[in-house]
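ARCHIVE CARD
Drawer: 12
Card no.: 0347
Subject: one protein chain, sequence and derived structure
Cross-reference: see card 0346
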Amino acid sequence: MGAKITILIILYTAMVSYDFRELLKQRRSDRIVYLSIVVFTVYLSLIFAFDLRWPFIYDLTDIIFGGPAHRIVDYLKAPQ
């Protein structure tokens, strides 16, 4: 776990230090998109580094689209 955290800290430090000056020049909407991607990757990195059982993106999509998807599949099944 310590090695994973160390590698992630090094990667995010390098990424932010490389992109910081360019981000200051970008429009606000570009910074919001960049920040949202970074927040999502930090979330996934925390799950990876600490072996957490937090909800993953598939869980969210299953909650939202699971019911309608099952109804569509049931509708398309051929009668037996």
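Annotation on reverse: The radius of gyration is 20 Å. Residues 2-25 form the longest helix (24 residues).
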